[in-house]
Structure prediction request, 535 residues.
Amino acid sequence: MSTIETSTVTGLDTVSYPRAARSRRWLLPAGRVAVPVVALLLWLVLAPLTELVPAPIPTVKEAWDGFATGWIYPGIQATASAVFTGFALGTAFAFPAGYLLGRSRYLNRVFEPLITGTFAIPRIIVYPILLTLFGVGFQAETGMVAISAFFPIVMSTAAAVRQASRTLLKLGRSLNASRAQIAMKIVIPEVAPGIMVGIRIGFSISFIAAIIAEFFAAKEGLGLMISRAHAGLDLPRMYAIVLLVMIAAFGGNMILWWAERRLRRS
Amino acid sequence: MQRTGVVLDRVGVVYTTNDGGSLEAVRDVSGVVADGRFVSLIGPSGCGKSTLLDVVGGLLRPARGGVVINGEQVSGPRRDTAMVFQEDSTLHWRTVVGNVAFGLEIAGVGRREREARARDVIKLVGLAGFEDRHPRELSGGMKQRVAIARALLLDPRIMLMDEPFGALDQQTRMFIGRELLRVWEETRKSVLFVTHDIQEAVYLSDEVWVMSARPSVIKSKIAVDLDRPRAPGTMGSRRFHELTSEVWELLRVESEKALDASGELRTTP
Prediction:
């Protein structure tokens, strides 16, 4: 009979392991809450050091007054209608165009260099052209928003549609599905999350385009109000509107992001 | 002209390559899949088995010859052919019922009717209880059963199966092969089944058509005279081994040719 002599002395007991990640599940929500809280605290602490930054409390009070006395409503109404109309208009053109570019090799090869090249042009330079065509007001601003939203939505829709599975397309053909059926019942549901990315980016850019257009030339709108407050050195009002725009853009984007994540899970 | 079954009449397929040349994939393939027969196509990799299936399915126009189904020449996808693919072809956003009913939905059958019929076929392929699950909750083998159920529900004259179990592991593959035979015994649909698994081809089929390396011709059609219904013991029988050896002998030469052409067998640089 033979035996195997082994030594199990390794000194491992001196090594300590980090605690399992499971026990720190609170870390993620805590971190997410901490970022805005720290930003707010910094603002509170640093604002008294200079006259050029209003304190948080007068800023929030001014924003509150905006709703209580109603001075903010015409601005919200003008900006929101330009953002939503322009975004809808841009999407109405961009989505079908992106779908066709994604499905057709020929169209893609014709238009891809054009669209990629045009993407580099700062969109705001077409605003003076729109102003001469439509005059200052809702139409020019909406046109600006629509053009800005168009490009990111075309490009991401085309990219998403191009990812559609060859096998599912072949299945559609073998079932003699019409072009509309292939679009509605196969490709669009399959790549919906990718399409939503374009819609979300298009929405962000719509908001940006509206505010920038209003800085430049507008009859009404939040961007115009910010530049007026800036010119009149009404800092609490300027900060109040900036804060509201930030919250609105953040909220809108979060809703779209949530929708995108839901689509991705299904 | 033969009035029943699926007739391949001197089918030839030529591809145009990217540099403008032409590549002959399939040459002069003829054969008959009689109604209710199970025929396997086997051949070396890249020999145009799937290409031939696409021609029968009406997805690819042959350069020469043609296919006649039930007396009519194939000129495009037809209601009486149904395809099953190697890759997962389930629609991930639909339930099993929605997936199985998909073909009928495209064909314009109303929701109530197609879903009721889908539930029957789901039971037939052994997925009862999974009707309302989504593909992400199913295994690879179950997803292929969904694809088979979807094809069966179209009530085709012939099922065109392109290596349907090629992506599955060996054990699942043998099990689902037996399941396919059970369903086939009940429905007796004609099947044209592409595979490169010799045992699978012999075990499932009435005939095995052995194809050559490119340009592919049918080298031999082997009648499989094993009793039906096939049992697990079939694979251990002497006749099964004779048939698989026969197929392997035919294939070995062709596979060497195909591998040699691809440079796979060259040992010296």
Observations:
- Chain A has a mean pLDDT of 90.
